[in-house]
Amino acid sequence: MRALVIDDSRAMRAILRHFLEQLGFEVFEANHGLEGLDRLHQMGEVDLAMVDWNMPEMNGLDFVRAVRAENGGHPDLRLMMVTTETELDRVSEALEAGANEYVMKPFTKAVLAEKLVILGMTQV
Questions:
Q1: In 10 A of CB 46, how many CB atoms?
Q2: Residue 17 falls within a domain, yes or no?
Q3: Which of 47, 72, 107, 115 is deepest in the core (most CB within 10 A)?
Q4: Domain with 104 in it: what CATH number?
Q5: Which residue range forms the structural domain that includes residue 44?
Q6: Each residue of 42-62: pLDDT tens digit?
């Protein structure tokens, strides 16, 4: 499986990359939403995108909206927001925009694993 990690924090990208690679994902990275859209189009088939909310150039919510608004909307791409935005309104907004799951920072490896199980991407 292929995953795209979109976060302006190099440290957070490294953490998510390490975790996903342990689960057998091939991982690609982007620094912000616009770069993420470019990478998504370059890569072809992608199974998962893990997206931060607060980034320069294009934030994560706008990335989710852009992906879902594209012709076809990448229906098989699972979008997971991984962010410090903890307000319930933000969670609802992301899910309504087309995110499939939402993880609040800081998180544990177990929480990420649980979310991937919910998305049908790994087994317990």
A1: 20
A2: yes
A3: 115
A4: 3.40.50.2300
A5: 2-111
A6: 988 899 999 999 999 999 999
